[in-house]
Amino acid sequence: MLFKEITIIDENLDAKENMVVGVTDDTITYIGDKLPENLSGYGRVYDGKNKILMTGLFNTHCHMPMTLLRGYAENLKLQEWLYDKIFPFEAKINNDDSYYASLLAIAEMVSTGTVSVTDMYAHMESNAKACADSGFKANISNGLMAFDDTPFIKNKNHLEEEACALKFKDSFNGRIKIDKSVHAVYTSNRKTVEDVACFAKENNSIVHIHLSETETEVKECLEKYGVTPVKYFYNAGLLDSHVVAAHCVCLTDEDMDILAKSGTFAVHNPISNLKLASGVADIPKMQEKGIKIALGTDGTASNNNLDLFEEIKMCALINKGVKLNPLSVSTKDVLRYATINGALAQRRYDCGALKVGNKADLIVLDTSSPSMQPVHNACNNLVYSASGRDVCLTMIDGKIVYENNEFKTIDIERAIYEVNKSASRIKKELCL
Amino acid sequence: MLFKEITIIDENLDAKENMVVGVTDDTITYIGDKLPENLSGYGRVYDGKNKILMTGLFNTHCHMPMTLLRGYAENLKLQEWLYDKIFPFEAKINNDDSYYASLLAIAEMVSTGTVSVTDMYAHMESNAKACADSGFKANISNGLMAFDDTPFIKNKNHLEEEACALKFKDSFNGRIKIDKSVHAVYTSNRKTVEDVACFAKENNSIVHIHLSETETEVKECLEKYGVTPVKYFYNAGLLDSHVVAAHCVCLTDEDMDILAKSGTFAVHNPISNLKLASGVADIPKMQEKGIKIALGTDGTASNNNLDLFEEIKMCALINKGVKLNPLSVSTKDVLRYATINGALAQRRYDCGALKVGNKADLIVLDTSSPSMQPVHNACNNLVYSASGRDVCLTMIDGKIVYENNEFKTIDIERAIYEVNKSASRIKKELCL
Prior knowledge:
Oligomer: homodimer
Distance between the termini of chain A: 51 Å
Number of strands of chain A: 18
CATH superfamily of the largest domain in chain A: Metal-dependent hydrolases
Largest interface: A-B, 75 and 75 residues
Shape of chain A: globular
CATH class of the largest domain in chain A: Alpha Beta
CATH topology of the largest domain in chain A: TIM Barrel
């Protein structure tokens, strides 16, 4: 495939007009301002007029099957929301429900420009399968919990992750990676966290965790363990591994120093943090400290959609408005969080930037909608004006998975039908 | 036109499934759960499967011609942004530029669910004409300024508003209203504000103003006049009239009491306030005090789009996240701000709600996109999941102005062409 006369966002996140980008198999093989000399090997030629081509986005914190719960419970206090609404519903979700709910989530993501997700949820094999089947990229874990003395090697969540790792190893062109996980400080005991830390170090694993999401979490951790959640995981040795930590809303200065030094990725989920009234992560300070920042949508129940362009805009806005500083979080900063930083968080070193030799994970945005005109600066329009709905083509590993409202790898009508059927059944089981 | 088997958001902002809504001429003439007995008089029948029908939205603070400046200048300090970038560009805008830039703004608004705007900008006759020509509703003013001793009856902005009022009076089915205005406390002298106050009282005018947008504005007003901007306008008698006050970010308790007592409409522009680092208006407290709240996008340079669904979501989110209270701003609260409160701010008493006898200002949203599925609660999806891009039909005074990506009253290609031509010319004149 050859994209011609197209505006690109290059690997430095600068916009360049009238460019040519060539894709061969699953790889970006040409970027230039002229047609390549050897045109054979490029099949379809794509007319780039009024289009922007950029790397696809990386959503580094999600719970895909929660699409089942979109709009199910709103404007409630956290405890009521969780214990009266979310948990009882989740307890009824089975593997099939989870598969189709993940498919719906993937459809939403690819149609709004996301090419890869870091996901944590039960039924992880079903969720990984949905990603594999739809050509999506994913780092999947299940959110390990440990409330009792069960030894780590018998921990159900750990075993499920290991079984999955075996199943998806060496297939799907490396698209599906199985991560380790610790759900959170408040859902695991110290011994198990230490065991995960050892296991992850030995196996060079990525570990996905929730971290310092609310004041309550930090307060309870201080009361129980005498340290902040960051210090708790640090002391347990977990931060020696490649850790992807969602939220990081309530951090002390010392916490930030630890995250920076340990190379932990902090995933900013600004919409979820506002909606659940958790607060606003101090992104400018975290960046200044050298913490690696990526972006996530969180699950649909706390957002309520998976359009990462909304997180991009929100990240750029909230950190200006709350800090009263219009210079906080530049256009390039936030685009970096959503692209290359996300790819690095997933340890996909050949992804996340428009660069020859990288995997062809590409999205095209149509600038002919009124919201995108005029284009003084394509990057500014991407951050402040665009919606994921402006995406008109999504390619993953060189394969088009979405184009002009059509899903090439997902039977969207079936997915919507199955999700609605599951939601109805569950509500019936809950006597609602 | 007869919408059948459609989910509606009724006048109480509750969702009802499988409803029938009839429109005759410019009016809603039937709402029921069965087909009306007398079907004659309703022409086209609209299949409402997977659709939500609701009143159109009211954007009560905008500067339409600023679409010319979309993405032109970002991440700058306010003074640099205004004096080095925005003002020099604006000085080059002529009437024709303004007409087409307004058309583009209107296209963006109708395609994202807005049926009416309260707009303040120079070249107001061109802007009003763009609204008239495109079937849009608008309350237009030009942002009166008064820096010297010119008597009010010779004030250029006042005279332009009066000339426009005469021109648009009694035409276009009342769609185009000409408001009075005071740009802001820092761009007018006390004598002129008093004269506007007298004039507005005598003529029963609506007055559109900017109010307490930033700490700097409040501080300078206190230094110069010894009172807050709210008190300043109150003392000048302006708040005796029907005032629509944009921003209201920095208010004292006494300010809020004055706004509540005077019946002033406070227009919340959350995205603009974040982007320009002005801060976050205390909407929960303002609502508690009884202030009437509406929503606005502000101009494109400080947003950067005119999709009021983004303001709806942002309003619901920001007031939870900053107040650390998930109960702040309910789904119904924010839908009320964007609909009936906006219509009342524009003194359109037969608009803003799905009600027999009201003007047929209607929008239809398609719920078949992945972001809108499943629909546990249509109102929740509208607030937290929807994008203006889900709007598939917009009707104003019974006339369809937009349907399925087609503009019925605007030559969108021409508008985009002209706006780009204007933007290029202006940048050339500025030697950029």
